[in-house]
Structure formats: C-alpha cells, structure tokens
Amino acid sequence: AAVGAAAGAGFPPATVCLVPVPSTRAAVAARGHDAVRALAAVARRELRRTGITTAVVPALTHARAVADQTGLCVDARGANLSKAFAVRRPAVAHLLAGQCVIVVDDIVTTGATAAEAVRALAATGVVVSGVAAIGSTPKRLPSRPQTGRTDAVPA
Question: Which of 14, 37, 140, 143 has its CA 20 to 30 A from that of 75?
C-alpha cells in the first residue's frame, strides 16, 4: 500500500527510505505480524520526530522459496538466500532513485540476508546507503581442539 501510494507522487528530495527485508509468509503467520516491517515503522516514527523525512518502502519480495535460516552455517545461509529477493515492481526502483535507501533487518547473524537485500536492490540500479538492524549475533570463531587444560585461553 505504501509503495502504491508513493509511486504516483514520488518522495520529496532527501527522503530516508527504509526498506525492510521481506519476511516469509510462514514467519508472519507464526509470529502473527511482520516483525521487520513493524521495526521499520518504529524507526520511521522516531526519525520523523527528529524532523527527518522518512518513508517505509516494502520494495522487496521473495523471488523463490527459502529454508528457515535457524541452525544454518555461514555458507549455507548465503546459498539459501542467493538470488532469493527481488524488487516488487520496476516502478519501485525509480521511486527510490536518488534517495537515502536503508535496508532494515531485525538481527544480523552472518550478513547474508542484508547482502541479498542490497544485491536485489542494486540489480535494479538502486544505491543502498546502509543497513540498519536492532542487533547482531557475536561472530563465532571456529572451534579449537581441547588442550586438556581448563585454564587455557585461545590464542
């Protein structure tokens, strides 16, 4: 709805366009809401309160089915999301041209979701200024063989 309404008139110059990563229908059904889109709406409200012209633009959709990312390693997450997103309509890319485009995600684990969102937007000529998330998981180092010492500190 927001994309359709905005496509007719376009955005004022220097609008921050928040593009939420798309949630799967199954995830929305399980949660009872689209958490990332809701997060983008809260960010829009807070940015507008500070005087920054902001819009939530749900520009991305799933181009194909993806598996649940939970439990997947870095490589598997990247493969799972490879070419998984697409821009909803060509008019959306035109709408985003020249704006400050920020991809919004909830949690960054490996960066695969954000990278795929940026790839899909860039494929239509949209320049992404950044990615925003409310949190990230700590980077996990490869496990090391046990030395038999309980006080050993990994190098």
Answer: 37
